[in-house]
User: Fold these one by one.
Assistant:
Number 1:
Amino acid sequence: MLFRFSDIFKSYGGNEILRGVSFQVNPGEKVGLVGRNGAGKTTIFRLLTGAESPDSGDVVKINGLRIGMLDQHVELEPGESVHTAALSAFKEIHDIEAEMRRLEKLMETDHSPEVLERYADLQTQFEHAGGFSYAARAEAILLGVGFAREQWGMDTSVLSGGQRNRLGMARLLLSNADVLLLDEPTNHLDVDAVEWLEGYLREFDRAYVVISHDRYFLDRTTDRIIEVENGRAVSYKGNYSQFLVERELRREQQMREYENQQAYINKTQEFIRRNLEGQKTKQAKSRRTMLERMERVEAVRSERHGGNFNLKKVERTGNNVLTTEDLAIGYGTKVLSAGINIILHRGEVLGIIGANGTGKTTLLRTLLGEQREISGRITWGTKVNIGYYSQSLDDLFEGNDLMAEFRRVAPSVDNVEIRSFLARFLFVGDDIEKKVRDLSGGEKGRLALAKLIYSQKNVLVLDEPTNHLDIPAREALESALDEYPGTIITVSHDRFFLDRLATQILSLGSDGTAVEYNGNYTEFHDWRAKVESARGTAKEQPRVEAPAGKPDSDRQPGAEPTLSKNQIKQLEKRIAAIEEELPGIEADAERLTAEMSRPEIASDFARLAEITRQHEDAQARIKALYEEWEAAAEQLK
């Protein structure tokens, strides 16, 4: 055991957040903590770190438990560089190293057994603490979280909020904590950095607990889910997708138990009512006492939104909804992305992904005619009626209540139908009376999406529709869009959302390239991994398009496309380059191996650490090149 929560209760201002939470986390466990916004997930972290105390119950931790947590406001030393700040996570190693340097100076004149023995002990500690590889680890993690080498010398005082958080994440990953507490760790990370973090955590040999709305991230990084609901915590074995299945089975069982208990209670209350004043008064009183002591099964508070949204029919567009030909987008003469070729048919969903600054929102604005294309052609199909969801939410009237705001798209619909539809988007009871100005960002997003989906537009253009939505709200949105009969174009960083809905993926690269793929996010991700292995860099990816004149539905999902002549030429060129590069790197690796065995190097720890890092880099490069060569050769078969 690392730590245990035992019957924890916690309230704020009379509002009971946690009521009887109990669970335990053991060494090496990879735990996802999920629940609605406000359910108490962050409160659990604060109780564990000691930032807050429970009203009752016990938080039990093993002696000396080292907890690493990324603070919302990362504190950095003024005047230090990004690289220095990252290395500050290794204070223990630095202290050992400083003591070794002091003893080395002393050993010039003092050769006593005590000094030599102390120095040998420090050498052992230094090695066990990773002293020969810590600098390489720090650099690899800085690159992973998105700091290019040229940024390592930046003063931390000039970092943006997002950069500070990424640097804080790097220091946390480098810490020697027994358990990491990760609160929305994918915030401020682009797609590449998120995927790097997923790989890092899968290989991480210590425990961590992660709070995240990124369900795809939870799927790839957790082997246990703890759901906080109605003030209690329920543990499920498996990742997020397995949790969804198991939770539904548990809820069905709980609902049956609740209904059976309610039937028994009603029958018993009827017996008490009829016999309390009659001949069976004693029995009736006994049963009343029994009911008062009975532990009640709670009704299921389902977060799933089954049933029909009763969406109105939308006017059918032509079969070809959108076509772009060699489209280039940007501002003035600055091109953000070029070579964009889209063929979107009626009823399909195009998911647009890419790092910040690659032109995702610019592409939407260009398609909508709000911005001129730099070159290329955009053709919308017949009978297209577009509805646009903007991250700015500027189409909401702050003074309206929810009912009045929704009537802007449904002026003649009765109140019952409006209330029923809004309930599907988690607006229930007194929520309807709220003013738009009083809604949270997530609530405003849900209202705007509900209006748009109900509006009978036959093409929806959505810019990050899941931003600010917790998991239940995302599930509600996905259910509504599942039933939507029109065509959807969406920018999203939510890979789980894209997996469920997308039929095509358009990936915009930071180098201005565009990759089109027929399939959902996972299929695209798996294909891209093969291409990157074959070509060595994502920047050289070829585009993938459906065969001309052939509907995408005729292809098997994830099927490998036929290579074009240009793609074959590029693969052959890359194989030749690898064959030319390999001998030189292998010779370097042999030279470094010989150098490490020289006596004068073995006693120079700084030089040995540098040579060791260079040797590891060379070996990693050799392995990567051989794997890339084999993958490229396989593609050419």
Note: Residues 537-561 have pLDDT under 50 and may be disordered.
Number 2:
Amino acid sequence: MSVGALWQRAPRPPVADDLERDGIAATLAELLARRGVTSAEAAQRFLHPDLDQLHDPFLLFNMEGAVERLLAAREKNQRLAIVGDYDVDGVSATALLCAAFRACALEVETIIPHRMEEGYGFQPLHVERAQEMGCEVIVTADCGTTSHAAVEAAQAAGIDVIVTDHHIPDAPLPGSALQINPKLSECSYPFDQLCGAGLAFKLAMAFGQRCGREFDARQFLRIACLGTIADLVPLVDENRAIAALGLEAIGPSRSAGLRALIHQAGVQPPVTATDVGFRLGPRINAAGRLGSAQEALDLLLCRDPREASALARRLDDWNRQRQKEEVQVVDEARSVFRGWPELPPILVAWSERWHRGVVGIAAGRLARELRRPTILLSVDGEAATGSGRSISAVDLHQFLIPWREDLERFGGHAQAVGLTASTDRLEALRSAWQEAGRRWPEEYFQQRYEYELELSPREVTIGTLEELEALEPHGEANRQPLIRVGPLRLRKPPRRFGKGHISAQAEGEGGAPVALLGWRWAERSQDLRGDFEVLAYLERDHYRGGPTLRLLDCRAVS
């Protein structure tokens, strides 16, 4: 049982009453209102994403200039290099731009940084590589906003730079570099939450339009949706359209690479945001975490089914290795923390045994489990490189800013940071961070769950499920609704399966049947005794065909 977990009902927005009066069902009206929908017209747009919800790409600041430079490169037969990041967003953005540029008769090379050997971002060494390839233009994908040294190096070498990135700018880029970034103060684009793949999609469509190649948007949306979903940008407005339409296009895709990836991951159409977030995305990411993201890029661009199958198996192998490395880091770090007399407000640990490519996801798991901001670092000689993940109450990036000068590299946002520090400074930094964290109130660390609906067991039906499925795809700013259901009582003991999972059949008053599913709930199965209620997500049971409640928490009914 989750001791001390606080269950709170999300307040009903007043505008939900207006939506109900406009003919929207009460449950759906309440859920839509919490997602920023304020009118019946907006509700229709939210529930039925369409191509007309995509904004004109030329509204992005510098888009016109970027397209003109690319047209000049095509006219002069100049070679172009795309420098992308090594995560899902960067790889999908690079693949999308590469496919679009080649379709428009540009000669394109790709450069993906190696996480272990080069680290993150567009760097002067990539300019040198582009020079060796004979490139006269560099386009970045999901990186470059703060790469002042690399931009200066490119301009000194006579190479023009077009940056496409969504990270927060720190200062204007030098010289004549063109930056397409909706977060620029000069940019008046109507939506500023596009990710790298979303911006690549906009540039591809704009360039195709000016080249006389009217691309079918869906052929690029199926790639753009990978980065949009995996990069955890808010799935509202244009991002919702990109994700929803892209997922629709993935299933019937003729792309050998996508088909092989989907098959290797065991995904059955229709492909969902959950499939991308937990099956497809991790396999693309795994190559960049443990090896070279070039293999993931090659897969997305691959047209040969046999080669695509081999690459997909390779990514699957990387993902299995990533899972092993992650488990090692989580187990060892958890052991360190549990060996302390008490948990400090912020958890910091490091080891020479930990793989640098997985410390971020391991930190995320421990932050959720232990309800503390967590920073894990991989030590390599005199330098330690790692990542931090936070809890909702703590802006970790803002918290660490006073120590920016003590760190060799630092960046990120409220919930996730990356950093490099001198190994001999780690003890002092940990002590300073823990001391500063003692100012946080104790309630920051209390487990809190905010649920959106309260259903009786009789209301857990296929009809309710279909109503909630209208809100998909789920993601940031459109989370899957959390539901409170009870009282319940088990019909028979839970069945254990897999690695610590359970399934169970329960019933409510009058015998209303309810199916329960608990991932990694084997150790908690004893909590499902007597009369109890649950917090859960209502999902479709693809094996039995009906609705099931995926458990998040439970407690006894007194």
Note: The first strand starts at residue 6 and ends at 9.
Number 3:
Amino acid sequence: MPHIATASLRRTPPLRLILAIFAMLAGAPALADDVVRVFLFAGQSNMVGSDAHADRIDEFPPFQGAGARQADVRFTYILGNGDETSRGWTDLGPQSAFGPELTFARRYKQHVHAPLAIIKSAVGGTTVAFDWNPDAPEKGQKLYPRTLKLVRESLQQLEEQGIPYRLEGVCWHQGENDMLDRNLYKQYAAGLTKLIHKLRVDLNAPELKWYIAAVSEKGIWGMDHRPNLGILFGQQQEVLKADPLLRWVPTSHLAFEVMSSGQPHYHYGTQGQLQMGEAFADAYLRDLKLPIDPPAVTFDGKFPVKPKGRVRMFALAGQRNMEGEDAFVSELGEFAGKERLMEFNKLVLFRYSLGGGVQGSTDWQPLGPVSRLGNFGPELSLGSQLREAIPADDGVAVIKFTHSGAQGPDWWPQGSPETHRNLYPRFIRFLQAAEHDLRQQGFEPHWEGVFWHTGENDTWFGPYANNQAPWMKQLIEKTREDLKSPELRWLISEQHPNSPWKNNDKVNSSLAELAVADGHITIIPTAQLPHGRHHFGTRGTVLLGEEMANSYWKAR
């Protein structure tokens, strides 16, 4: 049975605390036996863990201590050109870099009482078409035979020691280099299918599952190579649909590194790798049908609204800072008077869709921290401030629809050629469904405003930055039309001057001009707020929510 340290109980975020208690009650960890579950981690640079730094792990509260060696997890690896290798089994821990294996193992051990072993083979800049091709063409790096040899030798060592094992799955992250070559990307489905089949045959594991992670749309690949990435996505989905033993692992909502120039990186970086490990683990644990998510906190049918009462509805939408990247629930207790935001506010109705639908509510629940990543956005302080100021006879509802990896074209009302990325139809249906539900229950919903934070991913990229104001105009006008609220107020917070993204002044100025032309648009200044290396961070996000509430009252 898991142990909860009472000394740290007071500051444990509600979501983590509920999950720990739920695991205890459910009897987790599960699957207690002595058979070693063996996973192969393979791919290119984002599987290697490029630009992930072990000395930065403890900067991220949900992962403090995750860089410690795990003596209870067997680990063997070959990285890069082969110069970095374990030469047999060792304890799991960071190497010159680290990938998703660290937090995969940590998450696994929270739920499974069977021993774990990880074999890792990854090389940056490699392709399925050549390097991972089992037929090993001459121009490739012949990674398939190298990886097969590593797996066979590692399993042989277990057999020689009399250790029972079972090949459990392959965690795969790869595709960037195939995507970049237009002579290759349309061959990806055939190449990956061949690789999966050949490995199953050669390992005598016909039902070996593969957990395939998406190439993140939040990185540079999602912008200047947007069409190519769209084709790669289609190729991956083709493989997934044809094989019931494959699982998809979304990643575009995970943290992604930003360069000093303000350009989104090629790699997840430290925080993103830590989050990706848990994403892989959760995909596996869901296959086992383990109760990894806490039970939802609900109102039990007792809404904080008088019968037939008016409900003021507030929507929040946007990407990185609106979703809450780098704002951590566990740090709220460090700021006097903000500890209450860690608890669920049963006086505010809340619905949410995060990460473009990766996580969402199925019904109304009290406003509170809900992200599986341990993050929060400005909704916590915004909702709290609004509830305190709005007359008690009126209900308050906050509806959050965000995707930290989204970009301007994803929000176009007319859609983009990469149709799987289109957010507007989902966004407007989400808002309409919330309004409809309140009407069905006899309340009188009224849209008070949409809060939007200027898009970080758009601001850096020149073609998106130059079109930010015209795109926003289309989005605002279409939302008003579809919600049948022609004077619906939009409150848009500026990009902070200390943020690393380029073109901040240009984008902020163009949106200010848009507000001058439309009396129902309010621009929220942010220069006076604290800001971290990339994002507002915990304190800045709390204050951003309060600034949004203040701007709403001033605009009325």
Note: Residues 1-29 have pLDDT under 50 and may be disordered.
Number 4:
Amino acid sequence: MELEHGVSILSFIIDKLRSSGVSDIAIVTIPDFAGIFREINPDLRVIQIQDDRPFGNLYSAYIGCKEISPPLLLLMSDHIMEGRMLRRIIERAKDSQKAFILCLDRKPSLKTAEEGLKLSLHEERIAMTGKELIPIHGVDTGVIFCGSRSLQYMEEAVKKYGREASLKEAINIAAVNSDVDFVDVTGLLWRDIDTPSDLEAAREIYYEVLRRDLVKPSDGLVSKFLNRNFSTRISLYLYKSGLFIHPNIISLTSFIVAVIGAAVIPTGFYLIGGLLIQIASIIDGIDGEVARLFKATSVRGEVFDNILDRIADIVIIAGIVVACWPLSILDMILSIIAAAGTVSVSQTTHMLSRLNIGVESLRNIPATRDARLFVVFVCAVAGYPLYSIYYIASTSIIFVAAGLILLFKGSLTWTWLVQRRGRYEAWPHLAVELTTKGAINTLIANTFRLIIGLLVTRLLLSPFADIVVLEAPITLEVASLLLLVEMAIIIYFGSKIIASSGILVEHISSKLVHRLRLTSTIIRESINDTTYLLFALVLWTYSWSLRTLPIVGSYTIKSLAPITAIIIICLVYRLLDRLYKAYREALEEGISAK
């Protein structure tokens, strides 16, 4: 079964495991297929079940775990998934001591929820699993981490339920002892392939899985949320077309575009220069993506790309300096710091990684190359390229300082500077539980206050609307202030209503699960989005009334109305997209049946 020509389901799974750092891989099968698997991949360990009596996936997992002692990662051979799912469960396994760790998808489609292994949670732990359960909390994705005690539970389940039992039996025994953990993988793509229609659906998401896996965990904020949205689609188009462009050529192209952009800025064409620099930033991601897709990665190519990036960064700084010449002493100093920062940021990350110090938190500081080039683009388009020098210089200093803190974290003692003194709760301790009844009372109280507040502004203060509060330098009437007061009342009490409705929504969603057969997460998010949509519609309606405000009225309506409209459009899209994904397969099967 191939996802694309030359890529079988099994080879895809093995590739994802290896890219996640897993090197020792074994497959459990019967003797008839052992030779086939060895021929497909000589590096694959093959564990054979010699007994030809019928067995379930519990028994095959048990045989595999006896051969390769846990801890280990257990996957179903007919499931495809994003690489991030494997990395998440591996990261969770470093901190968890449970016998089993499952991957929980809180928002499966209706068909997946009906056919999949449902997980029931209690106080953020797995309480029970089973295909016959109501999908209140979500389903298992077929990726399981087996801890050191997992083999004991498997052996107990085999003795109790027999060879044809499923893995859920061992997991449920462990769940009784609170020995099952989970990691939330909601939003990540995966697929269980049981039928030809499942294979067709898997092929549909296969390329999207490839594209998502091109996004690296080390990407900066701009790269993750902007650049990769363009670069990954270009790289995937080249891959699907079979058009291989050597990554070094792409790196050189990015360098040339960046240099041209830097050369254009001193001529005064800031817009063109800024666009070229941002395009170079996007192209800079394509070389590595193409290399990974076509299996053409190399250390030499990575070094070549890094050298060109550093040179291009300094050339861009030089182009901005020439464009803004002459500079003050301070600007010259900041330009030197900015040029040095383009090198020191990369060097700081590289050296900390060599010491096995996690640099994920540093990525949240927008000083990486993607953020720097994006700021150059924005400032150049705005006509103030020198401001990007200020930004690069300041964020580089912050980044390097944060890196030094990471380097010495734990080796310095600060107790002589700051001391924490104990705080004690008053006796007796009064436990306050926010129940459904309390949530309803809070919701009613804030709704009542909102109505009273609007009645006061509309009925009591309206007769005074024509009173002039200020005449010079602008004319300000009470009517304009009433609009602002009404909006403030709606925002203040509306936010309290939304906040207090959380438990109520949770209660409603748990009731609707039995009727709609969807997980409580999907229902809860749909209810929340509907509430936010109504709130946004009210604000959008009120925003048009603000045009009467003196001086700022026209600017307010031109900024607030479009922003609110975009929020409304996004909420409507999220609602429709969520329902479409949940019911798509069920609708398709219903139409096919008719």
Note: Residues 436-586 form one domain.
